[in-house]
Write a structure and sequence with these properties.
Blueprint: H1 2-11, E1 15-20, H2 27-36, E2 40-45, H3 46-50, E3 61-64, H4 78-87, H5 89-97, E4 102-105, H6 107-115, E5 130-133, E6 141-149, E7 164-171, E8 175-178, H7 181-190, E9 193-198, E10 209-213, E11 219-222, H8 248-263
Parallel strand pairs: 1-2, 1-3, 3-4, 4-11
Antiparallel strand pairs: 5-8, 6-7, 6-9, 9-10, 10-11
Helix pairs in contact: 4-6
Amino acid sequence: MLAEDDEVVNDMKPKVIVLRTAGTNCDRETCYAFGAAGGEVELVHINTLFEKKKKLADYEILAIPGGFSYGDDVAAGKILANELKYKLHDEIRDFASSGKPIMGICNGFQVLVKAGLLPGFNGIDEKQRVTLSFNDTGRFECRWVYLEKKDNNKCIFTKNLKAMITLPIAHGEGKFVGENDDVISRLEKNGQVVFKYEDYNPNGSVHDIAGITNPYGNVLGMMPHPERYIHRFHHPRWTRGGVGEEGDGLVIFKNAIEYVKGKA
């Protein structure tokens, strides 16, 4: 009976909610990535949550995909961040504090920092401590980059990930900065820096930071797009050899799925 019960747990499909709103444009890719990783994925417009037609608590993983939410008016991700902070504050707080995985990619990362979910020194911070500002190059950067995975035993998204991975970026406001040097030092000392740009920093981020997590490792924000490298043929050099069967990004999604399955 124990073996049968274990098999049922392994076959479960964690419920993933991928939020979209006006200007979101990486939602379908993010849905596909979580589906390929073994999740049961639902694409939900944020108004559906505001209107109480669906409840965030009914899901086990939350993803905020890339794009240009609300046209990035005011600042990239700011309007959507305010909606989460002021219209869904309790639901988001409960979701994060329960240990459920939350992932913000590119514009989603911008949303998480401006909503106060990251760096999350005090849970959902009332004060924004970091931001993602205009690239030092003064232009939109769209290219592939190498990322160094930093040692972080708490981060649920990076288990068994290679020390060096490659992913594409596509952003105009990806420069990671803190309100002061103490915030950056605290992130480093806490082991909350998950990814750093290796060899080339495309936006001028302080300390080459490309992705961070909260102190508990269940909330991840990153500028590169893991959902755009799920299969080997997504890589520009896939016909020339040296590329694995699975894309580097797929592991990140699988880790979130396996984490939830392991908690069931």
